[in-house]
Write a structure and sequence with these properties.
heterodimer; A: mainly alpha; about 75% helix; B: mainly alpha
């Protein structure tokens, strides 16, 4: 055979391989085909193609592998089992940028499913190879590498530590400065995933100057970037006071409040999460946020959104109010209590309700003024109802009880307390009666109101063991009124009168 | 003799008397001794008693004087102490008053300052109001911007559609689709079609896009063949600050618009590389090697290579030679 014919044979084979690989890659982009492909043994077919001479076949094979591994757990495990990872990692350092992108995609697809798979990626040296990719010029390669590192670091602290130990963080911070938006997004997301696990990791991220760069990107118009930036900042600031202070010193706050009106709801949620993480540490940090008007913005945000998105906002209000009565009064003045009442009535999820109840408790327990604000919003009967409801979860009931007790111990607003006299169980009732016994001796108008609204009658009907604190309070209340009135309202008075009538002999 | 006898009998009597007296005295000796002792003791006792009582009296006097002295001294001391304590109580009372006032003042001014708290809370409310207003304005602004961008996008889409559908323009002979005779007035699409100027598709530049629309340039969507000046016959009334200049009359299209064939050719063939790039970067070593090889083989080849090398590298040839 002539040379040309021999060469033609090779060219045909190469065309066949190319076609196979391209078709597999196209098929793999549709989820319904993947099972069939897997059963047909595509993994073992693709493996030798990744070592092919022709670069484009290698790249397409890698792409196909990536799509397969992306789809499900088992396929990713199959990739690991077929020992493809070491080969991939080795060729990552040698090949051109298209191959690097495809290989990084495969690593990402494998690592995203579970910590064990990520561990196998790390064990085959994937992290170092990916960090080398981060030093490339091509932004696509950097993006793919950063994405893969992000998925690896997401699972647990150990994996995140291995990513940091490979020296990824300075390179990621440099990626934040690149002009491409996609790269910035991914870098911010990866930094967020790294710093969420432990304070040391967050400190490492901060030491590389991430905060300043993240702070610059807050006013960028791209919504997805803002989501990741705020998520990263909140993961950094949640660990300790010093980290939160560093974040605040970057002067994001008056500007970040503007992002609370962004059309994208996850941006708003992440801003609120950041505020919550900052606020929970010390009163001074809460002051910073209250002083720049963050409270009003968060309360408006709570009014505009619904469902799970409200949770960070509610918790933030609770944390702010918990620090001191000043701040709790600031929350009340910013119209926080009506908003929380709305949230309580609108949300049906028990964890949300529990969080709302906790926040209300934190607001109301400081002084009688605060308790009055809570009582006038008609929240006490609602709290009681939630406490008594059998379908509430344990956590919700416990929180309701705690909140009710702490608010009741300071509440002197009698019209708010009266509805509680009727339905409350005895452990709540004793607090209610105790409050009445404290207020009634000094206020004559309140006494009159108490009698006319039927409260005295109700108090007489309460059965209490003699000597218990409840009985003492009842006695204290009874001693505020003249004896005839007390006797008049005591149960069974009409029978007593009738008996007296029976026994009366007219003279 | 008689006297002697008498004395002798008297001696005997005397002796007898003596013995009797002695025995009598002997008998009474004890009693008398005891009596004497008693009398003496009594007397001595009286003496001692008198002495003791004297001593007592003197001692009493001394003690009386001494006790009075110490008592008065103690009393003076007690009076001083009582006075001191009274003074101290008074001072303490005054100090308590001062401290009470001071502490009340200090606490009310620096720790639980009611007015500071009140003004702080008022400040917070005002700041909240301000922030709410500003945020509302900001949101309004952003919404308007977005709406504007949407409108621009829509408009460009419409114009692009008109450009693609220009063949549906109504002619004198036949009314177009959008110009139905049953309609009172032609459809807006018809108006657009009339305005759009058809041009054969060439590679259009992006210039004129922003100045036409008067909108922020980079924000406008980039369409293939944007509604720039090539399409719209009469430019829309735009509040652009840049004056639109008339196109410079030239018989050929502007140099940026090349024939498609030219461009395609360029894609296929590499351009002539510059002289420097035409030669490989190891040409020098190769030339030296060649020269060394041909040194031995003959002067003709030597000349040839020399001329060749001097042709390609006039500068280097000089240094080489």
């Amino acid at each position: 055979m002539s040379q040309r014919q021999i060469i033609q044979v090779f060219e045909q084979y190469q065309k066949a391989r190319m076609q196979f690989v391209q078709t597999v890659a196209d098929l793999a982009s549709r989820p319904q085909n993947i099972e069939i492909l897997h059963n047909a043994g595509v993994m073992s077919m693709l493996r030798p193609l990744m070592l092919d001479v022709v670069p484009s076949i290698q790249q397409t094979a890698a792409l196909a592998l990536g799509r397969l591994a992306d789809h499900s757990d088992d396929l990713a495990e199959a990739v690991v089992k077929e020992d493809i990872l070491p080969q991939l990692v080795h060729s990552l350092s040698l090949q051109n940028r298209f191959y690097k992108k495809a290989a990084a995609y495969v690593l990402r697809a494998v690592a995203k499913h579970s910590p064990e798979l990520s561990q196998s990626v790390v064990a085959s040296g994937g992290v170092d190879a990916l960090v080398l990719c981060l030093e490339e010029f091509d932004p696509g390669v950097k993006e793919a590498a950063a994405w893969a590192l992000g998925y690896i670091a997401r699972h647990n602290a150990l994996l995140a530590q291995s990513v940091v130990d490979a020296g990824a963080v300075p390179l990621l911070v440099m990626c934040l400065l690149e002009p491409e938006l996609a790269l910035k997004r991914i870098a911010a997301s990866t930094l967020s995933d790294i710093s969420k696990h432990t304070p040391e990791l967050a400190q490492t991220v901060v030491d590389n100057g991430a905060i300043a760069h993240l702070a610059q990107m807050i006013l960028n118009p791209d919504a997805k970037l803002k989501r990741q930036v705020f998520s990263a900042l909140s993961q950094i600031s949640k660990h300790s006071v010093s980290l939160a202070e560093l974040v605040i010193e970057a002067e994001i706050f008056p500007a970040a409040v503007a992002c609370l009106r962004d059309p994208d709801e996850y941006v708003k949620k992440n801003v609120t999460t950041l505020m919550r993480e900052v606020v929970q540490h010390t009163p001074e940090l809460s002051q910073v946020i209250v002083n720049c008007g963050g409270m009003a913005a968060v309360i408006d945000y709570l009014g505009n959104c619904s469902g799970n998105l409200r949770l960070p906002g509610i918790m933030m209000l609770g944390y702010v109010a918990a620090h001191s009565e000043n701040l709790a009064m600031a929350v009340i003045l910013s119209k926080g209590v009506p908003q929380l009442a709305l949230c309580l009535s609108e949300e049906s999820d028990h964890t949300m309700k529990a969080a709302t109840v906790w926040s209300i408790g934190q607001i109301g327990h400081h002084t009688p003024e605060h308790a009055r604000a809570v009582a006038t919003a008609n929240l006490l009967p609602k709290l009681l109802e939630l406490y008594m409801d059998a379908s509430s979860s344990e956590d919700l009931q416990a929180k309701c009880k705690k909140a009710l007790k702490s608010i009741l111990q300071k509440c002197t607003y009698l019209p708010g307390l009266e509805p509680l006299l009727y339905d409350a169980p005895s452990n709540i009732l004793k607090h209610v009666v105790c409050q009445f016994s404290k207020v009634l001796p000094h206020d004559s108008k309140a006494r009159r109101l108490f009698v006319t609204s039927g409260g005295l009658k109700k108090v007489q009907e309460i059965q209490a063991e003699p000597g218990s604190p409840l009985q003492e309070h009842i006695n204290a209340i009874n001693s505020c009124f003249p004896e005839e009135i007390v006797r008049y309202y005591s149960p069974g008075y009409s029978e007593v009168l009738l008996e007296r009538l029976e026994n009366y002999q007219p003279a | 003799m008689a006297e002697l006898l008498q004395i002798k009998s008297q001696v005997k009597e005397f002796q007898q008397e003596y013995v009797d007296k002695n025995s009598y005295a002997e008998e009474n000796r004890q009693k008398e001794n005891q009596a004497a002792t008693r009398i003496q003791s009594w007397f001595r006792a009286c003496k001692v008693r008198a002495y003791l009582s004297h001593l007592h009296k003197q001692a009493v006097i001394i003690q009386k004087i001494w006790r009075g002295f110490t008592a008065r001294a103690r009393f003076r001391q007690m009076v001083k102490a009582a006075y001191f304590i009274m003074k101290m109580n008074f001072y303490e009372e005054m100090a308590v008053r001062i401290q009470r006032r001071w502490r009340g003042f200090f606490v009310r001014k620096y720790i639980h300052n009611f007015y500071a708290r009140k003004s702080y809370l008022e400040g917070v409310s005002q700041k909240n109001e301000l922030v709410r207003q500003e945020l509302d304005e900001l949101e309004e602004l952003q919404k308007r911007e977005r709406d504007c961008l949407e409108m621009v996008k829509e408009q460009t889409a419409k114009v692009y559609q008109a450009y693609r559908l220009h063949h549906l323009l109504s002619t004198k002979q036949c009314p177009g689709v959008f110009n139905s005779p049953f309609r009172p007035a032609p459809h807006e699409m018809e108006q657009l079609l009339r305005q759009v100027k058809y041009q054969a598709p060439t590679r259009l530049a992006h210039r004129g896009r922003s100045c036409l629309l008067g909108m922020p340039g980079p924000a406008a969507p980039s369409f293939p063949g944007t509604p720039g000046s090539p399409w719209i016959k009469n430019t829309r009334t735009c509040s652009s600050s840049r004056p639109i200049l008339h196109p410079i009359a030239c018989k050929k299209e502007q140099s940026q618009f090349r024939e498609p064939g030219e461009v395609w050719e360029q894609h296929l063939h590499c351009p002539d590389l510059t002289l420097r790039l035409q030669t490989s970067h190891t040409h020098l070593e190769e030339a030296q090697k060649q020269l060394r090889q041909q040194e031995g083989t003959g002067s003709m080849l030597h000349h040839l290579s020399h001329s060749r090398s001097s042709f390609t590298h006039p500068a280097y040839a000089k240094s080489f030679r």
